[in-house]
Specification:
Shape: elongated
Strand order of the largest sheet: 6-7-8-9
Number of strands: 13
Largest sheet: 4 strands, antiparallel
Number of helices: 0
Mean pLDDT: 80
Order of helices and strands: EEEEEEEEEEEEE
Helix content: under 10%
Structural class: mainly beta
Radius of gyration: 19 Å
Length: 171
Amino acid sequence: GLTDARGQVTFSDPVLIKPVTVVERQGDGNSTVIEQVSSQNLSLFGYQGLLFNVAVGLGGRVFGGIASGPFAQLDVGISEDLFAVYAAGPTQALVAGGSGAVYDIQQDDAGAFSAVRLPTGTNSTIRAITQSPFSTVAVGDGGLILKSSGGGLAGGPSPTSATLRGVTMST
């Protein structure tokens, strides 16, 4: 079957007898075969073809789209200019920008998107953000470096006062 606007598909038929074989194909043509699935629910997250795409801009604008489909503006109530985005999964993203703003954007089961501002302890502009399973790092103006801390981000000493515009980490 094909996915809906949220990237989900449901198979429900009395003739399906467990275990089944599931083949998942992403927009980039890569396939994954999962044999002997006997669970009631199975969730697959696309990282090779990234099922959920996110773009950000001035005035708190956030745009999202599924796979190769069109982008649409997501009304999540952000007003700060945004300069950085990290897609944390098919229905979650971290966005960051002016006034030290970092937001966790998530989509609920009904398909609605919402944004929660994370504490950062700074008003400096954040220019880039990344995340691993264990840590979040954001960088920005004046050598700003923030790392995960107690449900938010906190700064520490920086070796530079230059504006930092990119950050990545290995997992």
